[in-house]
Structures are given as structure tokens and as C-alpha cells.
Write a structure and sequence with these properties.
This protein has three domains: about 10-15 and about 290-435, Rossmann fold; about 25-140, Nitrogenase molybdenum iron protein domain (Rossmann fold, 3-Layer(aba) Sandwich); about 165-290, Nitrogenase molybdenum iron protein domain (Rossmann fold, 3-Layer(aba) Sandwich). About 40% of the residues lie in helices and about 15% in strands. The protein is built from 16 helices and 13 strands. Strand 9 (about 315-320), helix 13 and strand 10 (about 335-340) form a beta-alpha-beta unit.
């Protein structure tokens, strides 16, 4: 089978996106800061920009969201300047709620303040609370890059350089599309192999349905400023997703003794076998018996799902780091990927062997729905599928998912999550192909 080259020109000739699947960089940055303990995510933007992000995540996770803004308008941006708006916002927020004691302020920009040219770096000299700034204009990149840029900024600005390493200390750098439970599962997996494991950002204790004290006021992530400061003594950094390589490179600048291991994803048999092999190599420990059990279950799931998936055609849309794992897992059991439509360009798209791979929107994707047996997309694809004459199944993944509850507890990672993903897809195909 011949595969087509990535068609970047498809977006270049469109004056606008119709039914977009991409989301802005500030939204990715906001989510990343929610993965830092006692962080106050502060969007340097108008109230509307921040309100949209807050509502977006509230509906997706069904949880209270910590999100603040500097209330900039086009008029105040010109007359008062960005510095004044940031300082006044911090003063007003902390005075209004005296119990609010952030350990760090996560300041990220938007299109308005980037166009104005506000110097968010120098404003930190006037702030008593530690802060991290990141430039995330709406008109560049997307959610995936906003998350990755924030992880890099936290390392560059708050990690102290080191010359020694702790042999059993491991840092995970997960991509934006990984749900809180997925980060937790991978951390537990590494800890079971004998590693002291941290993740950056770490949503494993945030947005996961557990109402802790102060939730909705500050980020409740599992990594704090003190932990970030000492990341350079990690013996190993593991990136999951191509977008996170920039953050790993920033950490290597702090200590060149750190060993960097990269995986495009942790879905399917091959990548997880490689992941386990690497952990065994650097940790000198055998995996737990439960790991071997789940590997066997995944093998059985691949065999069971092969009869439905192997005769089916798929269309996948979403962030590149999420799409590549799903694509390769489905192909490993015989599935045919008719089209993969990504939110933004990423080098990882060049590795995908699908009939059509391009950056686009749902208007581009819908032309491929007619031949597909199943579409993997966010909930916006549902109404488009209803207009098709053919009954095509839909598996919801990515942002946003307003249709289902428990997004934060969906696990597609490692042997266990991969098996569950295959069964979910196969059961959806069963309903379509058997006319139920």
C-alpha cells in the first residue's frame, strides 16, 4: 500500500478553520500550570479569554478549575501597559482571598498581550511571589505546544544546575493529551521498578474527581516548586511525546549527566516492551508479576480485537502526540487508517504510515468519514457523523469531550490501557457492523 505525503498545503489555502479541532497555546499553558502544586495560573488576557478556558476545562473534566486573568482590554493594554495590569491583578486576587497563598504564579500571555509586546519577564522584579512566565500567543502553535513551552519554562527558570545525579531518580515529561489517571499509572509503573518518580507537569492529583481542600483556587498538581528546583539531579528523564523533547533538552542544559530516553507514545506491545526493557536496563530490577500479566492480556486483546479492527477503516483527529499512538496501535492489529488530521504540524507526523496525513480541521476530516467504520475525535465530530448516510462509529478522545463523564479516568497507556482501548474500539465496531 502506498501512503501519501503530509499535505500541509491544505490549510495554507484556507482563509479560516471550519469546525476546528485545534485549541490555543494559552489553554495548554493553563492546563500545565494546573499540574503544579499551589500554582496560581494567571492568564495575561481579557476576561473573555480566561472565562472561555475556565468553562472549557470545567465542562471537560467536570471539576472546579483554578484560572485567573489580568482583565486586559484593548484600551487598557495601550493606556496602562501590561506591567500595571499584572501587578494589580495579583494584588486584587490575593487581597480578595487572604487564604490564597500561591507558591508560584504561572503567568502566560495571549494574542492581545503578545501583539502589544508586554515584557512579562521584567515584571517579575516587582512580584514578591515566585513566578514563571511563558510566551504563548494564540496565533502560534496550539494546545500541545503551549503545554510543552510551559514545561520548558519551568525548567529553565526554576531548576537549579547540578553536577551530580541520584541513580534511582526519574523524571517523566508527559504530553498534553495524557489524562490525570494516565500520568498516575505511568508513575506507579516506574515506582514499581524501583524509581523515585516525578512528572512535569503532574496532573495525577489534579482534576481527577477527588475534591481536596482548596481545589478550584490553586493548582493541585503532585509536583511543587521545591521539587522543580532539584530536577537536575535526576539520573533519567523520559519524554512521552515529541512535543516534550524541548523540555528535556532544557533539563540536559542544567546537567549533562542526565540520561534522556524518548518514546513517541506508550500504546501497544512494541513501545511498552521497549519501555520496560529500558527501565530494567537502568534500574536493574525485574518488573512485577502484574506487568507480565497485563502484557499477556494485551496480547489476548490484540488477538480478540483483530477480527473486527483488522477489517475496518479509521479516521483519527487530534493532537499529534495523541494520534500517533492510536494510529500505530490500531495498525498493529490490522486496522487501516484512511486519514489522520492533526491540529498542528509535528515531526512525528512524518513517521505515520496512513493513506492521508495532514494538518486541518473537521471540515477536512468529514470528507473521509463516509468510508470510515469508526472515527476517533473530540465530541464536535458527533453531529457531523449524524449527517452521514453511513452509520459510522465514534470513539471520543482528545479535547473537548462534553459528552461523557470520567475523562480524567480514561487510561489508554501501558499494557493495561492499550488492552482497554482495543476493546472499546472493537465493541464500538461491533455495534456498527452488526447493525445494533
Amino acid at each position: 500500500m502506498e501512503f501519501k505525503k503530509i499535505e500541509l498545503s491544505k490549510r495554507e489555502h484556507k482563509p479560516l478553520q471550519v469546525n476546528p479541532i485545534k485549541h490555543s497555546q494559552p489553554m495548554g499553558a493553563a492546563l500545565a500550570f494546573m499540574g503544579i502544586r499551589n500554582c496560581m495560573p494567571l492568564m495575561h488576557a481579557s476576561q473573555g479569554c480566561a472565562s472561555y478556558t475556565k468553562v472549557f476545562y470545567t465542562r471537560h473534566f467536570n471539576e472546579p478549575i483554578a484560572m485567573y486573568n489580568t482583565s486586559v482590554s484593548d484600551i487598557t493594554a495601550i493606556l496602562d501597559g501590561g506591567d500595571y495590569s499584572i501587578l494589580m491583578a495579583i494584588e486584587n486576587i490575593t487581597k480578595k482571598n487572604k487564604t490564597l497563598k500561591p507558591e508560584i504564579i504561572g503567568l502566560h500571555t495571549t494574542g492581545l498581550t503578545e501583539t502589544k509586546g508586554d515584557d512579562v519577564r521584567s515584571v517579575g522584579t516587582h512580584i514578591e511571589i515566585p513566578y514563571c512566565y511563558v510566551n504563548t500567543p494564540d496565533y502560534e502553535g496550539g494546545m500541545e505546544s503551549g503545554w510543552a513551552l510551559t514545561a520548558k519554562a519551568l525548567i529553565v527558570q526554576h531548576t537549579k544546575a547540578a553536577t551530580e545525579i541520584k541513580p534511582n531518580k526519574l523524571l517523566l515529561l508527559p504530553h498534553v493529551s495524557m489524562q490525570p489517571i494516565e500520568v498516575e499509572k505511568i508513575k506507579e509503573f516506574c515506582e514499581g521498578c524501583g524509581f523515585e518518580t516525578l512528572a512535569l507537569p503532574d496532573l495525577s492529583t489534579s482534576l481527577d474527581g477527588y475534591l481536596s481542600e482548596g481545589q478550584g483556587k490553586l493548582g493541585t498538581g503532585a509536583i511543587g516548586v521545591d521539587d522543580i528546583a532539584e530536577l537536575a539531579n535526576s539520573a533519567t528523564v523520559v519524554t512521552i511525546g515529541t512535543s516534550m523533547i524541548m523540555a528535556a533538552n532544557a533539563l540536559l542544559q542544567k546537567n549533562d549527566k542526565i540520561n534522556h530516553i524518548h518514546f513517541n507514545h506508550l500504546m501497544g506491545l512494541e513501545n511498552n516492551d521497549n519501555f520496560v526493557a529500558q527501565l530494567m536496563k537502568i534500574g536493574q530490577n525485574e518488573p512485577k508479576s502484574s506487568v507480565k500479566r497485563w502484557r499477556g492480556r494485551l496480547q489476548d486483546a490484540m488477538l480478540d480485537a483483530h477480527f473486527l479492527i483488522g477489517s475496518s477503516h479509521f479516521v483519527i483527529t487530534g493532537e499529534p502526540d495523541m494520534c500517533v499512538g492510536m494510529c500505530e496501535l490500531l495498525q498493529s492489529v490490522g486496522g487501516t487508517i484512511d486519514a489522520l488530521i492533526a491540529t498542528n504540524y509535528s515531526p512525528v507526523l512524518e513517521t505515520i504510515k496512513a493513506q492521508n496525513v495532514f494538518v486541518g480541521d473537521l471540515e477536512d476530516a468529514v470528507t473521509h468519514f463516509e468510508k470510515a467504520d469508526l472515527v476517533i475525535s473530540n465530541f464536535h465530530a458527533e453531529r457531523l457523523l449524524h449527517s452521514q448516510e453511513k452509520h459510522t462509529a465514534l470513539t471520543l478522545r482528545g479535547f473537548p469531550n462534553y459528552e461523557e463523564l470520567g475523562n480524567q479516568l480514561k487510561n489508554d497507556q501501558l499494557y493495561e490501557g492499550s488492552a482497554q482501548f482495543l476493546f472499546e474500539v472493537a465493541n464500538a465496531l461491533r455495534h456498527v457492523k452488526h447493525g445494533r
